[in-house]
Specification:
- By secondary structure, this protein is of the alpha+beta class.
- Helices cover 23% and strands 28% of the residues.
- Strand 12 and strand 13 (240-244) form a beta hairpin.
- It starts with a strand and ends with a strand.
- The structure holds 2-OXO-4-methylpentanoic acid.
- 2-OXO-4-methylpentanoic acid (COI) binds next to loops.
């Protein structure tokens, strides 16, 4: 592993006001792949722009994937990463789906741990705060022909974050999207690839103009609930937690998986199943859906207070955070902040020099 030191460090932002993903740290990690030589050495270097040909294949054909992971510093100053192996394993699966090279998970994990240790002063302390890690891989070969790419860049940038949705702005408002479709079985919905996100902006902008934060995607027939794009979703229906079953077209969320395990541990019944939108909205109207929340690395556990469908707003759980979502949030925080034993083996402790 190579390390190139910065000449000067940036001034850190105010950690009590961290718009999501705005401030990048001093360093980044980089590793390049060529068809001839495979992956090169991992390098930790000053955060900087890199030079890319205007013909680089990522810019034309969207062969790009990414991950969202987090590192934490607790009030004792101990640093850890949460389920980083699961993120890197999912990234290798996304790479496979997108015809990109897979990498040595352990070597990359070690590199990221080193990067986190170097950036330790950038990790904000407190529940909901973290250093967000963005591993990314892009096709770099300058070529307009649609044939397999001969060079890729893997890199990781980091930014200090707090909650994804602005604190104090009220509960999340979600519009059920019944015009556009995010993904279909056999497509790339399960891969964390850039195109899935690029395709979501139009629907999101339309929803924003109507006063919503995000959209809830339905399947290709607009019948079954899928995900919110920035998070998976869970409902409390008649006292039980229900979440859409993995269908091949929704993201295999790591926070989704952790939430299912933690909720069961907390004594809640959790069902993964197909959720028909008409049946769901009937239950919402009958007052049987007492909570809805999104779960994701960035979103953590975000309660949803309003669900818009076919021009009408439905209030969930009196537009207040509910007990199930709150219990889940606290259980997650306790593990991420090292306050409860890591019985699932999710935490990687980061050595500080
Ligand atoms: C994450 O939760 O880490 C995500 O990648 C979602 C989003 C910020 C794109």
């Amino acid at each position: 592993m190579k390390f190139i030191k910065c000449d000067h460090l940036k001034q850190k932002p105010d950690f009590s006001d961290l718009p999501f993903g705005k401030y990048m740290t001093d360093y980044m990690l980089e590793m390049d792949w060529t068809r001839e030589n495979g992956w090169g050495e991992i390098t930790i270097k000053p955060y900087e722009n890199f030079s890319l040909s205007p013909a680089a294949m990522i810019l034309h054909y969207g062969q790009g994937i990414f991950e969202g992971a987090k590192a934490f510093k607790n009030d004792k100053g101990e640093i850890s990463m949460f389920r980083i192996e699961s993120n890197l394993d999912r990234m290798n699966k996304s790479a496979w789906r997108m015809g990109m090279p897979t990498f040595d998970l352990n070597a990359v994990k070690e590199g990221i741990a080193k990067l986190v240790a170097i950036e330790k002063d950038w990790i904000p302390v407190g529940d909901g705060k973290a250093l967000y890690l963005r591993p990314t891989m892009i096709a770099t070969e300058p070529k307009i022909g649609v044939t397999s790419c001969g060079s890729f860049k893997f890199y990781v940038v980091c930014c200090p974050v707090s909650s994804y949705f602005k604190a104090g702005a009220g509960l999340v408002k979600i519009m059920i999207e019944d015009t556009f479709v995010r993904a279909c079985a056999g497509g790339t919905g399960e891969a964390k690839c850039v195109g899935n996100y690029g395709a979501s902006f139009l629907a999101m902008e339309i929803a924003k103009k109507k006063g919503y934060n995000q959209v809830l995607w339905l399947d290709v027939n607009h019948q079954y609930v899928e995900e919110v794009g920035t998070m998976n979703v869970m409902f409390v229906i008649d006292g039980e937690v229900v979440t859409p079953a993995l269908s091949g077209s929704i993201l295999r969320g790591i926070t989704r998986d952790s939430s299912i395990m933690l909720l069961r541990e907390l004594g809640y019944k959790v069902r993964e199943e197909k959720i028909d939108i008409h049946e769901l909205m009937k239950k919402v109207a009958e007052g049987r859906v007492t909570e809805m929340f999104g779960v994701g690395t960035a979103a953590i556990v975000s309660p949803v207070g309003t669900l818009g469908y076919e021009g009408k707003d439905y209030i969930i759980g009196e537009n207040k955070p509910g007990p199930v979502g709150q219990a889940l949030y606290h259980a997650m925080m306790d593990i991420q902040q090292g306050r409860t034993p890591d019985k699932f083996g999710w935490v990687t402790h980061v050595k500080q020099d």
